[in-house]
Design brief:
alpha/beta; Rossmann fold; 7-stranded mixed beta sheet; 7 strands
Amino acid sequence: MRLNRIEFAMMNNPIRGAVQRYVEAKKLLRMGGAMNGGRALELGCGRGVGAGLILDLFGADSVDAFDLDPAMAIRARARLAKFGSRARLWVGDAGSICVSDAIYDAVFDFGIIHHVPDWRAAVKEIQRVLKPGGRFYAEEVLRGLITHPLSRRLFLHPQEDRFGASEFARELEAIGMDIVSMDEFQGLFAWFVAQKRATNPIVGG
């Protein structure tokens, strides 16, 4: 689901970029550690701030990133041009990721999965594209905020079958991932680092 005008404005300003760099990314780095090389994927890359952090802060060798909105993918491509072939961008859907199985060392979600109507399909896709032992870093908005009356008036989010932190963690574990670290803020936001089990078969979408 694409952002409405209010959320588009919130996501495309210097304050959002600073929060992503100095709060969200650093928290996930403390929880799950750096990549120190390897290939990463970012879901819903927006204007490309997160993909740049994956390269600069988490230490990925390369990052693939996509967004459902073609205009955002264009912005991200321009922002990440300085990285050359280390960054690859396309228009895509988190519910059906158009890459082969088990090719990424890490997948990053900076608040995207709560926008996906079938969020369980997105989680299965993440598990599918991760290598065994690969890590999933996620910062997510929870049901408590999504279904709040004020949030419903301001933003355009799916309302059916939304998740709390424990439900999201259980889904990750059910499809073959172990929770490495998890934190929650008042039922509104949560942060997860999970690792794909080396012994589990790939789970299809």
